Amino acid sequence: MQLIWRAVNEAQPGPKWAGLFAEYWPAYRAWWLREGGDARPTYRECRSALAEFMPELMPLYDQLCDLAGGGDVAARFLSFYRPPPYLSGCSQAIWPGKEPVLVRNYDYNPNAFDCLFLRSEWQGRAVMGTSDGLWGLVDGVNDAGLAVSLTFGGRRVVGDGFGVPLILRYVLQTCTTTAEAAQALARIPTHMSYNVTLLDRSRAFCTVYMAPDRPASVQHVAVATNHQERVEWDAHARMTATVERERFLLQRLTLHVEPEEKFIGAFLKPPIYSTAFDRGFGTLYTAVYRPRLGAAELRWPGALWPLRLDSFTEGSLAIQTPEPETTRFPV
Question: Does 51 have pLDDT greater than 60?
Answer without folding.
Answer: yes
